[in-house]
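2024-03-11 09:14:02 DEBUG pipeline.ingest accepted 1 chain
2024-03-11 09:14:02 DEBUG pipeline.ingest length=84
2024-03-11 09:14:03 DEBUG pipeline.predict start
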Amino acid sequence: MRVRKTQIPENVKTVAQNIKDLIKKKGVKTSELAVKAQIDVETFRRYVGGPNGPSIIMGTDKLIKIALALELEDYNDLFKDVKL
């Protein structure tokens, strides 16, 4: 689903930032994680975004793949600071 960056919900931006933080904490490259998660590298980069945040919204299936690739013990790490 493509939306304008201004339409990306704050919670999606928060999840994307959490993923970027976890990538940094784990010391892996974005491209390596994308391959491990079986997600196209460019698509993955659009999910987590650059300095301006994500440009597309990822589905639950992609979140699960990313969590597995990051070898997270707690999926809640992806949703830290998300407000419902």
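2024-03-11 09:14:41 DEBUG pipeline.report The mean pLDDT is 88.
2024-03-11 09:14:41 DEBUG pipeline.predict end
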